[in-house]
Amino acid sequence: MDVTAFDEEMMRRAMQLARCGELGASPNPMVGAVVTCDGHIIGEGYHRKCGGPHAEVNAIASVADQHKLPESAIYVTLEPCAHFGRTPPCADLIADKGLKRVVVGCLDPFAKVDGRGVERLRRAGIEVVTGVLREECEALNVKFFTAHRRHRPYTLLKWATSADGFMASRDGAVKFSTPLTMQLMHGLRARYDAIMTGAGTILTDNPSLTVRGTAGRNPARVVLDASGVTPAGASVYDPGRVICFTDRRRDDLPSHVEQQTDIDSHDMAAVMKRLYDLGFISLMVEGGARTLTAVADSGLWDEARVERSPVRLGRDGRCLMPAPTGVLKRSETIDGNIIAEYVRPCVEPV
C-alpha cells in the first residue's frame, strides 16, 4: 500500500513522542506510538522507562473509547516486540485488540525481535506497512542500532584542552571548562549508560563521574585499572553500579564493584564486547590522554566532543591531545570556549 502524507505526519508525531523518553528508556530504545481512527489521533504514548510499559501499550491504553480500536491504525517508530522480556509482547497486544493497520518506522535490530514482530502481526491478518521515514527513525536510536549491530556500546570520546591542545599543565590538572559548559557536560553524561575512565585520571583527579546540577540518572562507572593501583576509597567506587577491569581480583574494593578479571583492560575490543554483554548500549569515555588515545586508536568510537579553552599553556603544557581523526559535525562557542563535535568516518554499515 502506498505511504501517504498523513502516514508521514503521524510518524513524525510518533518520533516527537519517542524523544520524551531520552532520559529513562535506555538500554531500551526510545519509541513513540500514535493511534488514529478516521484521520484523527485518538491515542498517544511513548516508552518512559526501561522495565515499564512500551509505547504501544501506553498509546492503546490512552484511547478513551476502546471500541474504536478495531477500526484504528497505530503508528510506531520501531517494530513492536514479539518476545517476553520485562513486559509481554506488544505485537500480541495489538493483535488481541484487533487494530486493522500497523505502520512501522523501522525494524528492530535486536536479535529477539528483528522482523518477528511484523511477522506476528501479519499472521494475525493485520495490514503492516514498514519503512516509513526509516532513516529518521533509525537516526533517533543511533545508539541502540549501533550497539546491536556492532556488539559494542555506541561510544563518545570527551575531553577538554587548552587552546594549544594540552589536557594538563606541569603543575597538574587544569580546569578548562566554565560553570556553563560543565552543566552541559553533566547533561550529556545523563544521556549515556556508562562512563569510562582510567587509573591515571582517578589518581590525579579523583572524579565522581556522577550527574549533578541537571536532570537524569547517574551512568554506571567503568574503571580501567589493570595493575590495581586505584584507592579503594576513590569517589568512583561510591555506591552505584561500578565495573572495574583489573588483572587480579581485589578484596579491598567495595562489594558492589563488579570486577572483570578475565579481560585484558588494554584490549579495547574485548572491553567493549564485555560492556555490551553486560547490557550497556552507550558509553562515554572521559579519561586521560592514555585512555582516550587507546579507544581512538582502536577505532571503536562513534563521536568525539572536544572543548577548547582560550587559555594557552605553552611550555607549561603536558598531555598533548590532538583533535580526533574524524569528520567535524558541529562547532560552537559557548561561554568563550569552543565545543567541537566530530563523528568517526563510516567504514562499516550501521
Q: How would you briefly describe this protein structure?
A:
Helices cover 26% and strands 25% of the residues. It is an alpha/beta fold.
Provide the CATH architecture of the largest domain: 3-Layer(aba) Sandwich
Q: What is the CATH topology classification name of the largest domain?
A: Dihydrofolate Reductase, subunit A
- What fraction strand? 25-35%
Strand order of the largest sheet: 12-11-10-9-13-6-14-17-16
Written overview of the protein:
This protein has two domains: 5-142, Cytidine Deaminase, domain 2 (3-Layer(aba) Sandwich); 151-343, Dihydrofolate Reductase, subunit A. It has ten helices and 17 strands. It has helices spanning 5-18, 55-61, 90-97, 116-123, 134-140, 142-150, 179-189, 199-205, 268-277, 289-298; strands at residues 32-37, 40-46, 73-78, 101-106, 127-129, 154-161, 166-169, 172-173, 194-198, 220-224, 242-245, 257-260, 282-285, 303-308, 317-320, 327-334, 337-343. Strands 12-11-10-9-13-6-14-17-16 form a nine-stranded mixed sheet, sandwiched between helices. The protein has a five-stranded mixed sheet with strand order 2-1-3-4-5, sandwiched between helices. The chain has a three-stranded antiparallel sheet with strand order 8-7-15, with no helix packed on it. The longest helix is centred in the first third of the chain and has 14 residues, at 5-18. The model has no long low-confidence stretch (mean pLDDT 93).
